[in-house]
Design a protein that fits this description.
Layout lengths: L1 H15 L1 H36 L3 E6 L17 H13 L3 E9 L1 H11 L17 E6 L6 H7 L5 E6 L1 H43 L1 H9 L4 H42 L8 H30 L3
Antiparallel strand pairs: 1-3, 1-4, 2-3
Helix pairs in contact: 1-8, 2-6, 2-8, 2-9, 6-9, 8-9
């Protein structure tokens, strides 16, 4: 009997505040969709960092007869003594992985150039003598590279030191900015959802103040009076959660799985496992936003 009354009060409250309930659902839908997109963006950045940073190498290009640089002698290439010193310096650096120093000769550089540009008009634009000798360096920790760069950049015979962080770090900074912008926008909308839920419950308690007073007189507990309002808020929030999860799943399927994965295959893309984690986060946040404002509001406005 008590449960029947609770469900009856919940249905009545949803029916009486239908427009406010729909507004809560719509706000939760948009805000949780943005929040889930932010979570997916975070996982995508971490996935790409793990894949790309593991492949990052530092290239130490040596001087040649036709190269110029502060550590190069005009018209002369790096001597064998200079090459040995560069190699010893790299191998002694603790940031370099074990057996992580590889010397690439002109012939090997030319073979790699031919392989990379096979079938291209520029394939035959260079000769073996025009290629540059270099050391390829694998790092023990891809995110710690500054010590390696600084240790060899000033050595004689080194024309330049190049690492992929110069290209990848701005890209990841842009992705992080996009991610936090999405999370920030969703946080504002989630706050609006919480305020809207609290306002809806406040109006509902005011509209049913007579019934609440009668329940007080017959000895109903605060919990018994609060449960219908709590169910209203949870049902509204779950409506927004379901729509947000459907939106996120559709976005991942059409834009990632059927779009980006098939057109850009050299990048590791998120999938359903990452999407399920984001959905769990959305459900948790949605329930918290429904329960907390309701409990706070009812505690304040159910005093009759």
């Amino acid at each position: 009997m008590r449960f029947r009354h609770i469900f009856s009060e919940t249905r009545a409250g949803l029916r009486q505040n239908l427009t406010m309930t729909l507004a809560v659902v719509m706000t939760m839908w948009v805000s949780l969709s943005l929040f889930g997109a932010g979570l997916l963006a975070n996982q995508q950045v971490d996935l790409m960092k793990g894949r790309w940073y593991d492949k990052i190498e530092i290239s130490v290009f040596l001087c040649g007869p036709d190269t110029s640089g502060d550590q190069c002698e005009p018209g002369q290439g790096a001597t064998q003594a200079q090459k040995d010193l560069v190699q010893q310096t790299l191998q002694a650096n603790p940031e370099v992985a074990a057996n992580g120093v590889y010397f690439e000769s002109k012939a090997e550089a030319y073979a790699e150039f031919q392989r990379a540009y096979e079938g291209s008009p520029i394939q035959d634009s260079l000769t073996v003598d025009q290629m540059q000798e270099s050391f390829r360096v694998k790092l023990s920790n891809p995110e710690e590279y500054q010590g390696v760069v600084s240790s060899v950049a000033g050595l004689k015979g080194v024309q330049k030191v190049q690492d992929l962080h110069e290209l990848l770090d701005p890209f990841f900074r842009a992705l992080n900015l996009l991610q936090w912008s999405t999370v920030g926008a969703s946080a504002l909308l989630l706050l609006a959802s919480a305020l809207q839920i609290g306002n809806t419950i406040r109006l509902a308690t005011f509209a049913r103040r007579r019934e609440i007073g009668i329940m007080r007189l017959v000895g109903a507990s605060n919990f018994y009076i609060t449960v219908p309002f709590l169910l209203e808020a949870v049902i509204s929030a779950l409506g927004g959660v379901v729509l947000a999860c459907a939106t996120l799943a559709a976005g991942v399927y059409f834009f990632i799985i059927k779009g980006a994965r098939e057109s850009i295959r050299f990048i590791a893309w998120i999938g359903w496992r990452q999407t399920s984690y984001a959905m769990l986060g959305m459900v948790a946040v949605g329930l918290v936003l429904a329960i907390v404002p309701t409990l706070v509001t009812t505690r304040r406005y159910l005093r009759v």
